[in-house]
Backbone:
């Protein structure tokens, strides 16, 4: 029997702040719950450096938004309690969440550290009514993991994600195709997934103000103002059309990668290399953590029109070294990038082999040996005291575009 597609989208409410609250309350049950006061996870409140990574509901009432500079947030709410991030613990919470969700379906796509898609098509008959099942999932997460989530339910990934963004926190919402006209079309067009501020401004200038306006607009008009690929995509999204399947996690040891959608276009080599350094930090650490090495790396670039270009390099000897990954990634970048402004930069390590099978390098210099020992020592320190306990000096600059050790956070909307 063929079943109708049924997709759940799980989105952790104020993830970093919720997880930080869980950590503090586990250490001291008498600690103030950050979720109950104006608070934010971000940089250093004393130096007023950094941005808001997550904020509490009381902080939101002051107009504080994710991504804004701390100095701006503190002007809006001087009593705002700002705490530093504890990314190693957040990763642990994310793994716990996925482990719990695996008891409902094996078809899970981890969309970011705090989001996941569940394809419930083949398993929902085991649990009953979808809305009641989502409620049971939310209650289990609240009871067992001590934080809350929103769950969106629909027949495809786009609509499920849109649904999960409706009223928060700790809610279940549906957005099936027959509900689009009532629930989605009246929303401001900025609420449509993948619509950034720049694209929204262009559409407003031609009289489009809601998602419904975009849906009923001639696709050719959108393509003429936004470009063929992006205009077509946005028109399809506004009409609730998305054929992308839920992609289950890839087999272990197939590849390790990370990418980041940047807050602004990058068109210079130095800045792009700094982003590659942050990506090399996370990819290298993951290789060392799982005791594997890679034989090949690939650098990927994507511009605002979704045009993608990439280049790869094969090593003579497998590596797990951050510095080796970084040096070769920068060399790749220099070989194939013509400085066309890009918005996404990615780094992927593939052709994975176990650490124990690495060939001995008879020509390894004392310096490279020291660098490997140094990287392993940094891994241990970060594992014990948190990912922010050791930073490279280049990421301490006020104008640094990215933080060190880029996390696999949800991508910012393209603008």
Residues:
């Amino acid at each position: 029997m063929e079943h109708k597609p049924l997709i759940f989208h799980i989105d952790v409410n104020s993830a970093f702040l919720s997880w930080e609250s869980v950590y503090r309350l586990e250490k001291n049950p008498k600690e103030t719950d950050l979720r109950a006061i104006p608070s934010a996870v971000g940089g250093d409140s004393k130096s007023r450096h950094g941005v808001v990574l997550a904020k509490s509901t009381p902080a939101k009432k002051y107009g504080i938004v994710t991504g804004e500079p701390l100095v701006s947030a503190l002007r809006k709410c001087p009593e705002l309690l700002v705490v530093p991030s504890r990314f190693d613990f957040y990763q642990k919470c994310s793994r716990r969440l996925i482990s719990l969700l695996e008891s409902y379906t094996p078809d899970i796509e981890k969309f970011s550290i705090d989001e996941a898609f569940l394809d419930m098509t083949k398993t929902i008959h085991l649990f009953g009514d979808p809305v009641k099942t989502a409620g049971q999932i939310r209650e289990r997460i609240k009871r067992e993991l001590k934080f809350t989530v929103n769950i969106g339910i629909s027949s495809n990934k786009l609509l499920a994600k849109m649904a999960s963004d409706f009223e928060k926190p700790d809610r279940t919402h549906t957005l099936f195709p027959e509900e689009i006209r009532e629930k989605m079309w009246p929303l401001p067009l900025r609420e449509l997934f993948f619509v950034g501020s720049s694209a929204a401004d262009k559409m407003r200038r031609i009289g489009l103000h809601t998602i419904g306006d975009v849906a009923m607009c001639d696709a050719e008009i959108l393509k003429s103002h936004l470009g063929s690929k992006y205009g077509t995509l946005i028109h399809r999204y506004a009409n609730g059309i998305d054929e992308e399947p839920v992609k289950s996690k890839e087999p272990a040891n197939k590849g390790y990668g990370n990418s980041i959608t940047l807050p602004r276009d990058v068109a210079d080599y130095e800045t792009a290399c700094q982003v590659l350094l942050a990506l090399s930090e996370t990819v290298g650490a993951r290789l060392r953590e799982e005791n594997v090495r890679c034989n090949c790396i690939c650098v990927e670039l994507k511009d605002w029109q979704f045009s993608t270009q990439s280049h790869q390099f094969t090593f003579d000897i497998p590596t797990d070294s951050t510095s080796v990954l970084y040096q070769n990634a920068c060399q790749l970048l220099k070989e194939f990038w013509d400085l066309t402004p890009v918005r996404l930069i990615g780094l992927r390590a593939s052709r994975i082999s176990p650490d124990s099978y690495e060939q001995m390098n008879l020509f390894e210099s004392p310096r490279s040996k020291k660098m490997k020992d140094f990287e392993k020592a940094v891994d241990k320190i970060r594992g014990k005291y948190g990912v922010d306990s050791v930073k490279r000096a280049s990421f301490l600059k006020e104008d640094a575009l990215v933080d060190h050790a880029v996390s696999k956070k949800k991508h910012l909307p393209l603008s």
Notes: The first strand starts at residue 7 and ends at 12. Residues 356-364, 408-415 have pLDDT under 50 and may be disordered.
